[in-house]
Every structure is written in structure tokens, then in C-alpha cells.
């Protein structure tokens, strides 16, 4: 009966042109009203200064603030109204549930938004296995039968898969991922901009937000000692492992970009040896990415049950596993160059990379894109006069 009443209420609101909040959004609005009255956590992160500039929380405000949250857990362990208190204030968990909803709501194409709920570890590994098997079959069919899987090919990687074939396989998948993420965050930006003063980006605001992103400023707990993971102890482990992962990924991407320039502009095709720049960037990046993802996996397994949204753990772990498999298979491929293990490892590595690209727009990677957009809007908004004239940033 209560569900029917809720549906009737929502239908009337929609008919009147009102914006209806989902249950997770309404819960964030409720908790922020309580936090706005308390303000004990005001110095912890960007969420609370943004909160104090509002007396009410509409859908765009909630989406903006939820994506500012870094899920560090500091406010949960400091809160006097946290469970088991009857107010049941759990900001990290409530924000995480809304973030998951925003990823799905802003997905492009919209029909694929449900992949966020289905992007689990089993699906990710099955996708890697399927793509790897497909590539292995291609090697067998175009080589010397099954024996082609156990031979060191003439010409290295390109003796197995020609360069143009690899470009034809991976470029469309990568470009689709970029397009899907770009269109999704553009819609998000358009929605939250009016709710965050509407002022345009400025150079100082962009520099501040960029600094916050690159340093993961808001994983320091607001005091520099770090955030929380499995208990109420401060730790910098999450920040450090995120840094290893982020910069490892960026170095690997830089290695691929430099190798592309070498190939097309300098007529220097792969493979490359030390001390070439692609090999240096890729080697350091691969090791960093492997360390970071192994650390994040361990932290995820030990995470406090009240931190974050348990329903998103399969998506989180799938992304970590794909990054780890991409890094370790790439390093193993480097070590196996010139050996009979090269064909198998190349197929595994290419399968992992293609699975990673295919799931980028519909997995945990999106949180970095939406969070960056929110940090940019926060840096712009805080430079505008406080609309309610209470307190300061």
C-alpha cells in the first residue's frame, strides 16, 4: 500500500512539472539537512563547504555534492548522529548510492546505463577470457595451426598481429569509450552548472581543482593524517594506492601515445628496448599500476561495511582486476619477448586491454571523470558570493 501511495505521489509531482527525487537522493537531502545544522565536519572536505551554501537540496545540488565526496569515511567516524543513532547519518554510504545512480542516469547511450549494476568481477573476467580466446583462435587460424601458439614469431608482436589490424581493433573501442564518457559528463556539467552559481570556469578555479585532483587532496581526512578504511584509525594507504594506480595508468597511456608518435612520425615501429622512452614509461607505469591495484584490492576487501555502497563492490573490484591484469600481463609480455610464450601472453594482454576499454564508460573509471567535473564546479562556486550570507568558505 505504501509503495502504491509513493507511486501516486510521484506521478502527481511529474504531472505538475516537479522534479522527483529518488530514494537515495531524498536520503542524501535528509542527511545534509542534519549536517547543515551541526557543521562539525565542515573542515573535512569539499562536501561540507558546498553544503553550507545551501538551505535546500535539489536534484542537481545532490548530484554535484555526491560526486564531490571521496568516500574517505572521516565524517562517519566523527559523527555523533551516525548509526546506531536514530538519525542514522552515514554520509559516505548515502553519497556512494547517489553516485552510482548518477553514473547510470548520465550514461550514453542511455540504454546502456544498467551496465553499471551488472559490471561485476565475474563479467569482467569472462569478457577477458572471451576476447583472449577469440584472439587465440585468430592466431591458430592464420598461423601454422595450434603450434603457432608455442612459437616465437618472426617480427615480434607484429609477426602475430599486424599493426594496422591492432589499430583497427582497438581504435573504435577506445574512441567509443571517450565519446560515451564525454557525452555523459557534458550532460552532468549542464545540469549542475546552474546549481553551482552558473559562473564560467576561470584560470584560478581550474588550477585549484586540478591540484585537488592530482594530489587527491580530499583523501587526507581534512587534517593530513589520512582517511579511514577498516576502522577509525587514520591511514594514508588509500591515497597512496590511488596515486600508484592513477599515475601508473597515465604513464602507460603516455607510453602508448609516444609509441604512436614514434611509429607514424619518426618511422620507428615497435618493439622498443631500453632506454627508449616508450619502454621507460611503460615499464615504470606497469609496475606502479600493479602495485596500486594490488593495494586497492586489499583495502577494498578490508573496507568497513558502513563505508560506501555494498552493491557497487562488484563494479569496483572488476575495474581493479582489469587494471591489475592489464599491468601484469603487459609486464609479463615484456619479459617473454623472443620466447615461445609470446603468442599466449600477447593474446591475454590484448584481451585484458580491450575488455578494459569496452567497460570504461560503464564502470568505476567514471567516478574520476564526474568527480573532476564536480571539483571544477566547486572551485568556481566558492569564488562567488555566498547566496545565503551565512558563514564563510
Automatic annotation (TrEMBL):
Keywords on record: Membrane, Transmembrane, Transmembrane helix
Family annotation (InterPro entries): Citrate_utilization_prot_B, NarG-like_sf
Residue ranges of the TM segments: 121-141, 161-183, 244-265, 277-297, 318-336, 342-362
Domain of life: Bacteria
Name assigned to this protein: Tricarballylate utilization protein B
Gene that this polypeptide is encoded by: tcuB
Amino acid at each position: 500500500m505504501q509503495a502504491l501511495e509513493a507511486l501516486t505521489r510521484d506521478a502527481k509531482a511529474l504531472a505538475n512539472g516537479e522534479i522527483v527525487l529518488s530514494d537515495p537522493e531524498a536520503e542524501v537531502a535528509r542527511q545534509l539537512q542534519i549536517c547543515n545544522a551541526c557543521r562539525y565536519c565542515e573542515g573535512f572536505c569539499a562536501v561540507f563547504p558546498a553544503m553550507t551554501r545551501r538551505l535546500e537540496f535539489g536534484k542537481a545540488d545532490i548530484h554535484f555534492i555526491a560526486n564531490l565526496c571521496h568516500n574517505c569515511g572521516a565524517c562517519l567516524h566523527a559523527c555523533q548522529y551516525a548509526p546506531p543513532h536514530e538519525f542514522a547519518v552515514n554520509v559516505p554510504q548515502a553519497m556512494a548510492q547517489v553516485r552510482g545512480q548518477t553514473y547510470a542516469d548520465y550514461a550514453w547511450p542511455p540504454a546502456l546505463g544498467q551496465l553499471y549494476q551488472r559490471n561485476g568481477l565475474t563479467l569482467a573476467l569472462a569478457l577477458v577470457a572471451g576476447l583472449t580466446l577469440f584472439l587465440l583462435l585468430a592466431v591458430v587460424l592464420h598461423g601454422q595451426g595450434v603450434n603457432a601458439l608455442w612459437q616465437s614469431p618472426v617480427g615480434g608482436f607484429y609477426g602475430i598481429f599486424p599493426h594496422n589490424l591492432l589499430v583497427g581493433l582497438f581504435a573504435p573501442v577506445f574512441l567509443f569509450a571517450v565519446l560515451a564518457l564525454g557525452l555523459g559528463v557534458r550532460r552532468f556539467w549542464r545540469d549542475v552548472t546552474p546549481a553551482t552559481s552558473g559562473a564560467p570556469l576561470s584560470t584560478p578555479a581550474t588550477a585549484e581543482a586540478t591540484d585537488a585532483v592530482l594530489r587527491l587532496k580530499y583523501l587526507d581526512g581534512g587534517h593530513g593524517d589520512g582517511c579511514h578504511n577498516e576502522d577509525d584509525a587514520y591511514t594514508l594507504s588509500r591515497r597512496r594506492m590511488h596515486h600508484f594506480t592513477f599515475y601508473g595508468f597515465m604513464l602507460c597511456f603516455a607510453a602508448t601515445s609516444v609509441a604512436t608518435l614514434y611509429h607514424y612520425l619518426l618511422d620507428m615501429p615497435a618493439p622498443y628496448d631500453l632506454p627508449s622512452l616508450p619502454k621507460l614509461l611503460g615499464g615504470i607505469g606497469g609496475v606502479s599500476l600493479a602495485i596500486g591495484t594490488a593495494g586497492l584490492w586489499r583495502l577494498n576487501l578490508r573496507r568497513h561495511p558502513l563505508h560506501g555502497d555494498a552493491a557497487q563492490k562488484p563494479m569496483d573490484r572488476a575495474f581493479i582486476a582489469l587494471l591489475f591484469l592489464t599491468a601484469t600481463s603487459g609486464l609479463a609480455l615484456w619479459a617473454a619477448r623472443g620466447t615461445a610464450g609470446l603468442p599466449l601472453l600477447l593474446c591475454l594482454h590484448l584481451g585484458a586491454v580491450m575488455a578494459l576499454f569496452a567497460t570504461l564508460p560503464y564502470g568505476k573509471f567514471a567516478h574520476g571523470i564526474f568527480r573532476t567535473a564536480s571539483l571544477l564546479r566547486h572551485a568556481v562556486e566558492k569564488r562567488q558570493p555566498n547566496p545565503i550570507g551565512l558563514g564563510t568558505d
